[in-house]
UniProtKB/TrEMBL annotation:
Keyword Signal: no
Identification of the protein by name: F-box/LRR-repeat protein 12 isoform X2
Organism: Lepidothrix coronata (blue-crowned manakin)
Domain F-box residues, every copy: 3-49
InterPro entries: F-box-like_dom_sf, F-box_dom, Leu-rich_rpt_Cys-con_subtyp, LRR_dom_sf
Record keywords, A-Z: Ubl conjugation pathway
Annotated Pfam families: F-box-like
């Protein structure tokens, strides 16, 4: 007895499957049949786009912005080429202006190994509230806007910098006054110390989440500086021998909203951490050596 033909998957299911495919497979799926071509071009498939597995050219990116990326795009991930020259650079102010025009709902922009030395910060689309830079090359004062240029309309809430080597104490000092609306700040493998913490505590008063890893030069003085962040709820720190456990306890006492403290780096005895947890039951304390 012949098997009954299975009914085709509904469009809603296929749209979810297509949205999970890598870019190249998503484009190939459009060649299967007319139905799949229509589904592959649906706006729902292009809400979150990850181009980072591919080193695309600026010409390809222009084509995507003009003909593929919909106005409903929310997340865009890209990978460039560090220390690139001329047309090899992935981004330009003109391209970002086109992205701002065609994708007004873009709120998360994630860049990896992208040369931003010739792309002013004010070129970032104003709709972006989350900016993630991984191993990107930016100038020391990238977040500072020239007084001759109208101030950017960016309203960043989340900033993640990983391996952005120009972000040092001086870089944070220059950037902090321009990032006062931040609620989440992540600094990984950036060379910062006490001075950076002072300016974070002075200007970024709205922070709810702060993560700093590999802070080899951070001392008690720097850690005390963030006692002004009264809205802070989560604090993740890699601490080394220059910071004492007493300073950590003092910080817990003055940050009433802190409910999660994650410590790394320096080895603390489990018994000591258990006693601290007993004294601060409102805060979940974890430790990874």
């Amino acid at each position: 007895m012949a098997e009954r033909a299975r009914p085709p998957l509904p469009d809603s299911v296929l749209l979810q499957v297509l949205a999970l495919l890598p870019l190249r497979d998503r484009l190939r799926a459009a060649r299967v049949c007319r139905r799949w071509q229509q589904l592959a071009q649906d706006r729902a498939v292009w809400t979150h786009v990850d181009l980072s597995p591919h080193r695309i050219t600026r010409r390809t990116l222009w084509h995507l912005v003009r003909h593929r990326l919909p106005d409903s795009l929310c997340t865009l991930r890209m990978r460039g080429t560090p220390r690139s020259l001329g047309k090899q650079r992935l981004l330009s102010p003109a391209l970002l202006a086109a992205l701002r025009k065609h994708c007004p709902q873009l709120h998360r922009l994630c860049l990896t190994e992208t040369d931003l030395r010739h792309v002013p910060y004010e070129s970032i689309p104003s709709s972006v509230t989350t900016l993630e830079l991984n191993l990107c090359d930016i100038p020391d004062a990238w977040f500072c806007v020239s007084p001759l240029v109208p101030p950017p309309q960016n309203h960043l809430k989340t900033l993640s910098l990983c391996g952005t080597y120009r972000i040092t104490d001086m870089g944070i000092q220059a950037a902090a006054p321009h990032l006062e609306e931040l609620e989440r700040l992540i600094l990984r493998h950036c060379i910062i110390g006490d001075a950076a913490m002072v300016f974070i505590g002075r200007h970024m008063k709205q922070l709810r989440y702060l993560e700093i890893s590999n802070a080899y030069f951070l001392t008690n003085r720097g850690l005390v500086s963030i006692a002004t962040l009264e809205h802070l709820e989560t604090l993740c720190l890699d601490l080394y021998d220059l910071v004492s456990l007493g300073t950590v306890i003092a910080l817990l006492q003055v940050l009433p909203r802190l409910n999660h403290l994650k410590l790394g780096g320096t080895c603390f005895e489990d018994e000591v951490l258990r006693k601290i947890q007993e004294n601060f039951p409102h805060c979940a304390i974890s430790h990874t050596p």
